[in-house]
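Ticket opened by: R.M.
Priority: normal
Category: complex prediction / small molecule

The reporter submitted a protein together with adenosine-5'-diphosphate and asked that the result be attached to this ticket for the collaborator who will pick it up next week. Submitted input follows.
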Amino acid sequence: MEAIILLGGPGAGKGTLAESLKQKTDYLHVSTGDMLRAALKSGSPVGLEAKSYMEAGELVPDSVILRIIEERIAQEPAGARFMFDGFPRTLEQAEGLEAILEKHSGTITHVFKLDVPRETLLQRLTGRRVCKACGAVYHVINMPPQKEGVCDVDGGELYQRADDSEETILNRLEVYEKQTAPLIDHYQQRGLIRDIDADQDAEKTTTLVLDVFNG
Ligand code: ADP
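Result attached by the on-call engineer:
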């Protein structure tokens, strides 16, 4: 198996990029944030364990995350290609992933680091709206739906994620700087970092990433 990692602060556009890469490549999109939100919605034990951390903008314990990742990888055939979005988020998770990959004779081929200034991250997160039904992501100013509060795709109701309140956003940015940014060095040492200017519209960002793939 092969894996790529999308690395960047909250609001950097990992999810949006992953959605468009999914349509243009054979990578499977694995978002720990989406998996945790689904677990929360279904009331599973993982969801119950994750709830308070997510609401506060703190990281869910590494052991929980590594367990759901291991289960997810085991569902796919040996040759599968994974695109990790929002994982790993700590050095422990990065090391855990390396151990899992070793078991599956897998390798990480690229770590795309999405570069976005802090002001843009804040502006994107405060205006973000998500479809309750399909998860499509909008922005009240940058990417508004045709009809306010309604999803263009399926007419679902748009809502603001509980962790997109201003206070929680500030905490998530701090958590990123303290716990996740050290991963940049970790992957830089392994020659895997590809810097992507993600302070532009989503299509351009996707093109930059595809250019790297196409050499
Ligand atoms: P964002 O990247 O916009 O912060 P995510 O959807 O990736 O949003 O994550 C939302 C929340 O889910 C995080 O704030 C954290 O509580 C939890 N979470 C997601 N992925 C991880 C992870 N790999 N490790 C720990 N917690 C995670």
